Structures are given as structure tokens and as C-alpha cells.
């Protein structure tokens, strides 16, 4: 099968197209023929070697942890899915990722695609959507009338976080550039702070929850807007324990735990009109296009998700 792999850590030019052996599956897995995948920051962070201590994969590594496609094989223990079904998934974090024509996936990590959902939309949801869900629902327990601040609302995780928070009945503030103000409002944001000209930490107070996707100074200033016993979760860097204690805030770093049942809940939200999958730019499945897509993701200014189409 065709795959785009890396044989060493480095810049975007280490992404190389080649033929590799089609993967085999275990009894509790299916083989998905991939129609679309997407780019996440973890992709280029692994490629650059930033996560080699946390994820000590053997080379060659096939990057990519989002997939939408069709089941072409199923293991003997698989009971809830059939060959020919359209599915989407955030597969397990291994060196056998989704920049490939086929990927093996554990049954418990699969979700069924709604009939009206395109493969491109489905590929945009898993990693970013599940991350947003686990931040807001599992960690924060966001509920009706909570005041929530979501940083970088136009980004991959941010756009899902706004929509999920609104579905839970929260009042949602987000940071965005002026050009993305109308976009994040269309997702449900109640208030938009222009991070280029305004200081959110001087404008907001008494918030219940902050989702930090930036780290650094943004994370430190986020404590100032929270009420005592408020919560902050970061997907950028582990919070400083002393800082959190100083502000009497519960703070944590979230590393995604993929779950098919939660992904199915996001599919149900999509079906109910409560969740839109925002496909930003799409790229072809070629070495050059993947390199270009990585470069775009590394700017941190992509709107929605960067999707790669294979079919």
C-alpha cells in the first residue's frame, strides 16, 4: 500500500512517500480503507522529535491519528461493525498511523459515520473533537450557565470546544483574531476577545473554566480570570502546580484517551445539528502536499482542520 513515512526526525522534508506492506489485523480489530485523514500538531511534534521520550516509536513511522473510511476486513471477535460500513476513528497511538491507504483499528475505538457526514468532515473530528470533549465533559464537568474561556477558538480543538460548551448550556468566551471573529460567533461564541489588541486577563473575571491550548504566558494569565476552585486544563503544556495553588485553581494537563463511544456521541451531535465539522484546507495524499500541510499546521493559524483526501 502507499504510505507517507519518516525514517528519521527532522523538518517537513523527512516525510517520504513509499510502498509498504499492507497491515494485518488482530481478532479484535478491523482494517479500515482510509478515504480521508487530517493533520494535528502531534503529527509534526512527533516528526520533529519533540515527543521522542514520551513516544519512543521505532522507525519507519507512519504519522497521523485521524481516519475516516470503510471497513474492508474484520477480526473474529468484532461484533458491532461490519465489512462495508463507513467509520471514523482516532486509532491507538502507534507507529502505524493514518498517512496510509489502510490502518488497523481496535473495535472499541471506532464510531459509525452518520449518513450525511462526508469522509472529509469525519476525518476532521476524532482527535480534536475527542480532546475538546474530554476537557469540557470529563475533566471540567461543564454545566448550564458556567462561564467558559476557550483560547484559540478558530483552531482545531477550539472550534469543537465552543460547540460542545454551547451544547452544555455554557456562556462561552473565546480568543481569536479579528478576521475570525464572525467565524467563532457562528459556532456559538457569546464573546470574542481579539488577542492581538486586547488583554483577556484584564477583561474577564469569575470564570468557571479555561481551556488552554497555548501554554506559556497565556496559561499563566488564564489563572487571573478564574474564580477560586475554578478549573484550567491545558493541551499545550503541564500547568505549574505552584501557580495553580496560588490562585486556588484545579489545573491539569490532558493527554487524549481515544474512545469510540465518545466519538459516537460526537456523531450523534452532528446528526442532531449541534456539531459542525470545520474543514479548513484540503490537500492531496502526496509527499509534497503533506509537507505543505505540516508547514501550515506549524503556523498555528489554520482555521478549522487541515484534511488530507485519499479517495
From TrEMBL:
Domain Enoyl reductase (ER) span(s) in chain numbering: 10-308
SMART domains on file: PKS_ER
Pfam families given in the database record: ADH_N, ADH_zinc_N_2
Alphabetical UniProt keywords: Oxidoreductase
Molecular function terms from GO: oxidoreductase activity; zinc ion binding
Protein name, as recorded: NADPH:quinone reductase
Source organism of the structure: Planococcus halocryophilus
Amino acid at each position: 500500500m502507499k504510505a507517507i513515512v519518516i525514517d528519521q526526525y527532522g523538518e517537513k522534508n523527512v516525510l517520504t512517500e513509499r510502498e509498504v506492506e499492507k497491515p494485518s489485523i488482530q481478532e479484535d480489530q478491523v482494517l479500515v480503507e482510509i478515504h480521508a485523514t487530517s493533520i494535528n500538531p502531534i503529527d509534526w511534534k512527533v516528526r520533529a522529535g519533540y515527543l521522542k521520550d514520551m513516544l519512543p516509536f521505532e522507525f519507519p513511522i507512519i504519522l497521523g491519528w485521524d481516519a475516516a473510511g470503510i471497513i474492508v476486513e474484520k477480526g473474529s471477535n468484532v461484533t458491532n461493525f461490519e465489512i462495508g460500513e463507513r467509520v471514523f476513528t482516532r486509532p491507538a497511538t502507534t507507529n502505524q498511523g493514518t498517512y496510509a491507504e489502510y490502518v488497523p483499528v481496535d473495535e472499541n475505538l471506532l464510531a459509525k459515520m452518520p449518513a450525511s457526514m462526508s469522509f472529509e468532515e469525519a476525518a476532521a473530528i476524532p482527535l480534536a473533537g475527542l480532546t475538546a470533549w474530554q476537557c469540557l465533559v470529563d475533566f471540567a464537568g461543564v454545566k448550564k450557565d458556567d462561564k467558559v474561556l476557550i483560547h484559540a477558538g478558530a483552531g482545531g480543538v477550539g472550534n469543537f470546544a465552543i460547540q460542545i460548551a454551547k451544547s452544555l448550556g455554557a456562556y462561552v468566551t473565546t480568543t481569536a483574531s479579528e478576521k475570525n471573529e464572525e467565524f467563532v460567533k457562528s459556532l456559538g461564541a457569546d464573546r470574542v476577545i481579539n488577542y492581538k489588541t486586547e488583554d483577556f486577563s484584564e477583561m474577564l473575571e469569575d470564570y468557571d473554566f479555561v481551556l488552554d491550548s497555548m501554554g506559556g504566558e497565556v496559561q499563566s494569565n488564564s489563572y487571573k480570570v478564574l474564580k477560586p476552585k475554578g478549573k484550567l486544563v491545558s493541551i499545550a503544556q503541564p500547568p505549574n502546580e505552584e501557580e495553580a495553588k496560588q490562585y486556588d485553581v484545579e489545573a491539569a494537563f490532558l493527554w487524549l484517551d481515544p474512545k469510540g463511544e465518545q466519538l459516537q456521541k460526537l456523531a450523534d451531535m452532528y446528526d442532531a445539528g449541534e456539531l459542525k465539522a470545520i474543514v479548513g484546507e484540503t490537500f492531496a495524499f502526496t509527499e509534497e502536499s503533506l509537507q505543505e500541510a505540516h508547514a501550515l499546521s506549524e503556523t498555528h493559524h489554520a482555521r478549522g482542520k487541515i484534511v488530507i483526501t485519499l479517495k
